[in-house]
Protein 1
Amino acid sequence: MNLEKMLEYQKIDQEIYKVELDLNRSKEMARINNFKNQLSLAQNTLLKLNKETEELFHTIETLEKDILNSSPEKGFAENANTPEKVNSAEQTLNECLESLATIEKESKRAFDRLTYISREAAKQYEVGRHLSGEHKKAKEQYNLLLSKIREEHKHHFEQLNELASQIDPKLMAKYKHLRDHRRMPAIVPYMGGNCAACGMDISIEVSEKLKTSGDLAECPNCRRLVYLK
Ligand SMILES: [Zn+2]
């Protein structure tokens, strides 16, 4: 019967599932995740620097326009034939010089920041390259461990393949879905009105569907499949 095969499958698969959980908690996996996190930090820093560079270019463009606007109008000192007019021309010139000095200061600040950014970006890029290499190495180590485990459990995988061919694909798909969502065991007995996994009283929702031994229903609480023994 389909369900019996499915339960047999689940029993063997639980062994593999346990190994998978151990593998996820292994130091190899921790190393991979650590490098991945560091790598994403370096990438974020580079993105931020890139954004700031764009802003600085925009600032520099604005400053260039300001320079043009700060230049005194052509002929501003013409006809300065009275002391008042000379004074006024002098004042205009001083104001222009002052604003040019401010622009110069702001430009210097922008260019200094760009120099800093380009150095920092180069540094982050190197960090990223190093981390990518380490991440790759950690992944290789993990893969070695994985193939070792696969080899050790070869007989289990063979048994699973054999059983899978005798199980209803729909039931199998549901099982895989639950397994992917870490609801293991995925198929549990219906115990006196309760789901054996989550313990919820589900008699109202499922009792109609569970009439004869082997009948299946979904637990409305944890979504596992419950079966009648
Ligand atoms: Zn449940």
Protein 2
Amino acid sequence: MTDDSTTLRAAYYTLGCKLNYAETSAIGRMLAERGVVRARGGEAPDICVVNTCSVTETADKKGRRLIRSLAARYPDATMVVTGCYAQLKPEEVAAVEGVDIVLGSDEKLRMADFIDAWRRDRIRRVEVTPALDINTFRPSCERGDRTRYWLKVQDGCDYFCTYCTIPFARGRSRSGRTAELVEMARRVAAEGGKEIVLTGVNVGCFGLDTGESFLDLLKALDGVEGIERYRISSIEPNLLTEEIVTWIARESRAFMPSFHVPLQSGSDAVLRLMNRRYDTALFASRIQFIRSMIPDAFIAADIIAGARGETPGEWEKSLAFAEASGVDRLHVFPYSERPGTRALGIDHIVSQEEKHRRVAALSLLSDRLMRRRLQEMAGETRPVLWEHPASPEDTVMHGHTDNYIRVSAPADPRLYNMVTPTLLTGLDPEEEETMAGVPQTDTI
Ligand code: SF4
């Protein structure tokens, strides 16, 4: 895909989740196969690709703001917008000044063809397949940050939680095939990759559409030589079965002792209103089971503050449960009203002010839990995978322990992309939620 005389340059912008980042990389790779190079810092791109998120009203707003600022900065660039916001509200996105092409979830991996067509006829296009008709799945495995790879194993969701628009943005649950995903992991190993994070919208639903099993996928990936670490990005508590936890604890070679399990509310009444597939008793039993099998596992949970139906009484229950649940960290999200969701029919509405108060209380709780956990780990020696820093001039490097604690140490290029035993000396006074570490390099 070249102009008459020049090579086209594209710049990529991503909002939202890891899955979006992995997909943007896949789009970049696909355009590169058609001769489009990545615009370097300072170069004006010929094409701007914006991969949007629509998890909240704020995410939509961020998307519009980003598109407008890019259009003002690069008025001659072709502006392509895709992602969940484009899928859910294509006309709203198309109405933002400067947008040339809007592509839905199914169309984004044919982006090169749409850009070609635009460059031929300059006709603006809005191409979006209704989400519930999408049944294609394209696995992708991309370097998500400077060291880790993200392997997309599943897309879409059939759960239809009452507050969530994702099933309408990404369609029904569908999965990759184990053999293909294992092949991708082998390619990562051949490139020198050491860690892979399994991503998806609802990864625990892997295989329900193909007859394969999630646990069998984990076992097959575990056998790929060269990959030293795997993590599951996030998994619903009802799908993180005791069988999976037992296998990770007793047999797995490379699945790490870190888990991210959405809670969303610590009130059973609110969980029912949300149409979640578990109650607090099941959540608590999963966390206890993980702790009994893998005592040093680090467990994070998502929680929503101020959802509809979260009356003062239910809020008190939610906060108390979150504190007692045994998780080490909370990712706190304020409830966001999304047009078209069933949650809008739920009666009790929490005021903005009260919602902010609840977010602050949960964030404080999370800080306390996390700090306590980090302090307990001071003095331990744990394996850390050191990451390439953002700039070669950086004097500090970062890495993560097996149980996903962020660690800092003076930069040492010999250690980038290597796993070393590392003494955790205590909380890093310079950086939040980070331990200071001393790599034990005498074995290198
Ligand atoms: S499980 Fe619920 S919250 Fe998660 S993507 Fe599916 S519908 Fe949304």
